[in-house]
Amino acid sequence: GCEEMEWLREQHQQTLDQFIVQSEQERSGIRQELELALVEKAELEKAVESLQHETVRDKEERVRMLNEVREEMGQVILQSQTTTKEKEGKFAEMHLRCSELSLELQTLHEELRRKH
């Protein structure tokens, strides 16, 4: 009776601890991807500034690169959405940041198209 309850409690605590560790790892992974995305965004902003000095071929290459980055961002957001559902909203804030980044990248993409 009592021993069994204690054992169950310990098992439950272990499961909980594992869940917390796993959540932190996933959170850390998403944070790293976001930091990378922010760096890429800064690079893209620089690219937009220098676009007027580039040839058409260079511009096409930039647009292609921008699209790739946006696709990667989409993957990050997708993972974040899934994780948010699984972890009961723990990553809602990061998902919001992802969405904001995605919007900014969309804006950059439109600027690129206009300059092209």
The amount of beta strand, in percent, is under 5%
* Largest sheet data: none
Structural class: mainly alpha
User: What's the count of strands?
Assistant: 0
Which segments are poorly predicted (pLDDT under 50) over 5 or more consecutive residues? none
**Given the C-alpha coordinates, what overall shape results?**
rod-shaped
Distance between the termini: 75 Å
The tally of structural domains comes to 1
Q: What series of H and E elements makes up the topology? A: HHH
Radius of gyration using CA atoms only: 21 Å
Percentage of residues in helical conformation: over 70%
- Summarize model confidence as the mean pLDDT: 80
SS element count, helices: 3
